[in-house]
Amino acid sequence: MNRYFEVFFDYVRLLVDIPEIDQDICRTYFKPLQLKKDSIISPAGKIPEFHNFIVSGYMRNYYVDEKGQEITTDINDGPRFFTSYDAFMYRKISKENLHCITDCELLQISRDAVDITAKLGITQQEYTLQILQQQLEKNKQRAVDLTTLSAEQRYAKLIKNSPAIIKNIPLKYIASYLGINPGSLSRIRKTLA
User: What digits encode the pLDDT tens for the residues 132-144?
Assistant: First the structure.
């Protein structure tokens, strides 16, 4: 389980230098967890209890629309933090499911523990704020891309920016995330190949 924290601290160091005291606090409040493929770790209709750091594996956020279709709103290209951010931060019911696409190794911290570590740690507030800003910017950029880029351009951008997603995530989830019909995405892939 020490490897989990090595991956975690390497990620945090990309944002801020994390002192030993903050590392000890994280070791106390983050809990290691192993999940099997197709686990739903936070179902729609409930308040998300945990902020998840993905050590390994692939996850997605999705909701089910009025037609019963699964709409993927986020796919991880971790290691990274992953949750239904708005619902988690404001302790409100989420409309999204958090789904393990593959077997996953996580570190989880509860919402109450986030508040505790923010008071105890030196850098926790700073990196939490940076993570939330990154997520907000990513969501904003995705909304812009969905309205301004063609389906082919969106797929090409995903290939360039997140090649691991293309290699490890089923096509139906990628198509949903990009707002493309799976059949159309298959044609786009052939064209780009």
Answer: 888 888 888 988 9
Which residues span the domain enclosing 16?
2-135
Are 34 and 97 found together in one domain? yes
Give the chain's domain count.
Answer: 2
Choose among 150, 100, 117, 90: nearest CA to 30. 117
| Inter-residue contact 86 to 92 (CB < 8 Å) | yes
CA distances from 180 to 30, 95, 116, 142, 161 (A): 37, 21, 42, 14, 18
Residue 54 lies in a domain: yes
DSSP class of residue 95 equals S
With b for 16 or more beta-carbon neighbours within 10 A and e for fewer, the 24-46 pattern comes to ebbeebbebbebeeeeebbebee
CA distance linking residue 28 with residue 25, whole number of Å: 5
Could you report the per-residue pLDDT of 10-53, keeping only the tens digit for each?
Answer: 999 988 899 999 999 999 999 999 999 999 999 999 999 999 99
Report yes or no on 85 lying in a domain: yes
Domain check: are 128 and 52 in the same one?
Answer: yes
Residue 170 included in any domain: yes
